[in-house]
Predict the structure.
Amino acid sequence: MHKQIMLGNEAAARGAFEAGCQVAAAYPGTPSTEILEAVGRNHPQIKAQWSPNEKVALEVAFGAALGGVRSLAVMKHVGLNVAADPLFTFSYTGVNAGLVVITADDPGQWSSQNEQDNRHYARHAKVPMLEPSSPEETRCFIREAFQISEKFDCLVLVRITTRIAHSRALVNLEEELPTAPRSFVRNPPKNVMIPAHGRRRHVEVEKRLNDLRSFSDQSDLNVVESGGRQRGIITDSVAYQYVKEAAPDDSVLKIGMVWPLPEQKIRQFAAEVDELLVVEELDPFIENWVRAAGIPVTRGKDILPMCGELTPELVAEALGKKQDSHKPPVCPEKLPIRPPRLCKGCPHVPVFKALKNLDLNVIGDIGCYTLGALPPYNSMHTQTCMGASIGMHLGMEKADPESAGRSVAVIGDSTFVHSGITGLIDMVYNHGTGTVIILDNRTTAMTGHQEHPGTGVTLAGEPTRELNLAELCRAVGVDRVELFDPFAVDDLEKLIKTEVETREPSVLIARRPCILNKG
Amino acid sequence: MTNVIITGVGGQGVLLACRVLMEAAKLAGYDVKESEIHGMAQRGGSVECHIRFGNQVASPLVARDNADIIVAFELCEAVRKLEYLAAEGVLLVNNMKILPSTVESGAMEYPDNLDKWLAENISKAFLLDNREALADIGSKKCLNLLMLGAMAGFTSIPDNNWEEAIRNLVKPQYLEMNKKAFRLGRASFS
């Protein structure tokens, strides 16, 4: 069998290709971004696309599955929040051809605003979830996920984390699976979720969950690796790898299908060991379920942290492995920190210099420009989730009508298209008078320069109709729209000050390509 | 099992060095895994790769106190990773400072004698002045292969596997200068 070194995300793309996936959609987000890039680069047979946001990406993939071909939607953990609405009801309708949704979680928050544990989504939406522990398993599990999806007529979530997505390892290459062509069949009771239909589908969802429980118990995705009788460890995801390093002689129940959990397998495993431990990252998802099933757990989150990612040494310590007592000498000097910063020549820099000098409240958003919150600018005062800046700016004006004269919302071009536009519609509709600065660097820069509707180029590099941001803003009812080059504008401070003080909505589009942009 | 950490600053070529090492380990018949944090690399942040190779590798992360080799492309980044160095571990440092933005802005200071402190306190620290070699090669971009050459002798990977790995991963137009960089680095420890 041919082996290649692949990034976990490349292995995910390979798995989708081998499974016969034909349509893939995503919005970029660390640590998930390289999956669709790898699909586009390595598997041009698949119709791959960047969508404006994760909700649309999931809807496109779902439509493709309903239309008869295996399809994939990819997002980072917080992206699944955006796509949660379709997720919960696609669970009711089922799929036709296979639909797999990859959620790339970020324990440790290497590049995210929170470290939510997306295993909860599987339980909440009543859909199965697979959890690979390595790049090779990611490839295999995605193949398997497509088959489960069709067998149970249900979308399947696959959860990876930063230490799998951004891990390189040897990956086997296998042949493509045969797929049977399907077509869209009109079936309103199954696909039109009016309440009368939805109620009946809910009954089917519960039946399906029962079937999936049996499957989880029988599947090799959940596997016992027998060792000593004294201690048994239930573990999943990359934590499994740390357990194998720290306690190679213990019995392990490796969970590869984390929802629904394999109840009989867990009961039997628990009965065969003296002490039962659960080693999992972030929330006690498995542990709480096991306890609720009435199975005693000896140790779990009492010896492992809820916050941050697990590491080999944290797991080794929790499992009582003797560690080297060697302590390297500690350098007495205080080392300067090396935070990321806006690049030299970044077109956002003049804007943040102006905002700093004007001393405005800056309602921020998600992207490179969030670095404006750090020294030397210190000019961003809120940042929460994609697209939040404009709605929050309006809310602050509602709280204090004078605040719009001291504040500005700042959002990137890709983020504005993702979910800023609805906030702007709200501002106009509900008599807001705020100023929005769109930092239009003609790319999705933070995640590594992906195209978006405003760049006029598709994921495949083909030209397409470019979204005209200025016309879009005018169309929603903003009369004061100014488009300028932040490096060439006469007096940026005066321009911003004038708009902020004018009591009507305004949009300033600071357009200049990212200094790092290819081509 | 060999545990390696390669660390540096965005733009120094840490990821290519990591991929060449992995490829060489694979060609030598080893299992190999890696984990990297590179999200902020293009914006002046640190870049760090953990690489482990041996008969069978489970964790993609090196545990603290367990790195057999740390290769640092920058002085301060070397000191940052010391908690990972094993008791008999080798520390290879490109003896050069890249000032962080916090130092450029005057908010923090870059300590003066880090190289001296490393030489005195880490038994197997090698502080390499690569300026002459890089001038000879004619490209500062070859620092990564130069450092990789310096570390090659501390691994069990045969020279022919290194050469093949470089051929497999370096773009043809840059191949000759990178091969030369690797050879110069290798020669400094033979």
